[in-house]
Write a structure and sequence with these properties.
The protein is mostly helical. It has 19 helices and eleven strands. Pfam families: PORR (PF11955).
Length: 448
């Protein structure tokens, strides 16, 4: 018996040496075997570039630098600055050495370099068209204060507690069309809507909505659904919880992915303005509703902005207050047909989120006055210096400058409202502007 047990143990020992590589091969085959396609949207997806939005950000990259120079010049006495001091002051704004002078010369429609008649020193100031654009933007910002009040009320209504940190709103004030002094011109001026207080536990200032208005709890996507239902006659059951999906060019859509998107479109969800604190969110169905609600919250957040875009980092400031997921970038990449994330124009450090349905061919479908005023500066930036009529512009500008010793533009010039632009109201409508953008754009991006 002992001899039989010893023989059997030796037999299995020798067999086990030959079975190990076989089991290893079988495990490799099962692990590399393609899994069956599921009907859920993949969690991790690669970003597909859309050059229309990237080109938009490249233009904004230029205008952002021009804004810095404009603020620098306007902060100086008489709104002029010596060329000898320009490079020193520009380095405080993050520009490299000897970069300021070359940058100013690229945009003769925005900056003007002239020689002082007495001192014989070169100075830099803003052109008449640049002053007109600034005045138009200021006027549009003041006229839009009622819309900004409504926008801020809707933002507070989307938060869990009806309150937001003042600093978070201040950082994103330009995107939502709020003036720089919105704490006084909007919050304190309308005490029937807002309340400003200091939190004792965090020592931070908070804005709180006084009373929620049910008439403001209608989302932008709900209005679009009604238009789709009335104009195109789409089935009410198919469009009840759906979003407008436009995938970027080159995005691969398989059969199973299309089925997953169709199923996701029919998943019900809670409104961004609805209080979900009383619901049990532990079930799988509740989690699906909350995920789709997060898409609706970001969609509504972008709809409230002036240009239907905002950086991902500023959306993250409202993450805790609006129940948004932790990994926002991966979450938005799941829905590239609704949103687009661009990393251009910010050195790859910031991510700009666009609402795809609001744009067509790189332009806003329903522009507002503040958006048009900001795009006027982009028009001035995109005009080629070779095609600028500098001499005629300088003569007329010097004549106006002598009438106003302080260097401010006269009110009758502001009332003309950009008559010198020759009817070019939107960027990209004129073929020459596109050619200039393509020819002159490449040299400026590398300089940043």
């Amino acid at each position: 018996m002992h001899i039989f047990l010893a023989y059997s143990s030796n037999f299995f020992k020798t067999r086990s040496k030959t079975l190990k590589p076989i089991t290893f091969i079988l495990l490799n085959l099962t692990s590399t075997r393609p899994m069956s396609q599921s009907t859920s949207i993949p969690k991790k997806q690669e970003r597909v570039r859309d050059h229309g939005y990237d080109n938009y950000m490249e233009v904004e990259k230029k205008t952002r630098k021009v804004h810095k120079f404009q603020d620098l010049i306007l902060s100086q006495p008489n709104q002029v600055i010596q060329i000898s001091r320009l490079d020193l002051l520009a380095r405080r704004l993050g520009f490299k050495q000897n970069e300021a002078g070359a940058f100013v010369l690229k945009f003769p429609h925005v900056f003007e370099i002239y020689e002082h008649p007495v001192q014989r020193i070169l100075y830099c100031r803003l052109t008449r068209k640049a002053h007109l654009q600034i005045e138009q933007e200021k006027k549009a910002l003041i006229d839009q204060i009622p819309d900004a009040v409504t926008c801020l009320r809707k933002l507070l209504m989307m938060s869990n507690t009806g309150r937001l940190r003042l600093e978070h709103v201040r950082i994103a004030r330009a995107e939502f069309g709020l003036p720089d002094d919105f704490e006084y011109s909007v919050i304190i001026k309308y005490p029937q809507y807002f309340r400003l207080f200091d939190a004792q536990e965090t020592r931070n200032k908070y804005i709180e909505v006084v009373e929620k208005d049910p008439s403001l709890s209608v989302c932008a996507i709900e209005k679009l659904r009604e238009i789709e239902y009335r104009e195109k006659g789409i089935d009410a059951e198919d469009i009840r919880f759906s979003f407008i999906v436009n995938f970027p060019p080159g995005f691969k859509i398989g059969k199973y992915y299309r089925i997953a998107v169709w199923k996701w479109q029919r998943v019900p969800y809670w409104s961004p303005y609805e209080d979900v604190s009383g619901y049990d969110l532990r079930s799988l169905e509740a989690q699906k509703r909350m995920e789709k609600r997060a898409v609706a919250v970001i969609h509504e957040l972008l709809s409230l902005t002036v240009e239907k875009k905002i950086t991902l980092e500023r959306i993250a400031h409202f993450r805790m207050a609006m129940n948004l997921p932790n990994k926002l970038k991966e979450f938005l990449l799941q829905h590239q047909g609704i949103f687009y994330i661009s990393t251009r124009g910010n050195h790859g450090k910031l991510h700009t989120v666009f609402l795809r349905e609001a744009y067509k061919k790189g332009e806003l479908i329903e522009p507002n006055d503040l958006y048009l005023a900001r795009r006027k500066l982009a028009e001035l930036v995109l005009i080629s210096p070779r095609k600028a009529k500098v001499d005629r512009e300088l003569v007329s500008y010097h004549r106006d400058w002598e009438d106003d010793e302080r260097g401010h533009i006269r009110r009758d010039h502001v009332e003309n409202s950009f008559e010198d632009f020759g009817g070019r109201n939107t960027v990209g409508q004129d073929r020459g502007v596109d050619d200039d953008m393509n020819s002159d754009m490449g040299g400026d991006y590398d300089s940043d």
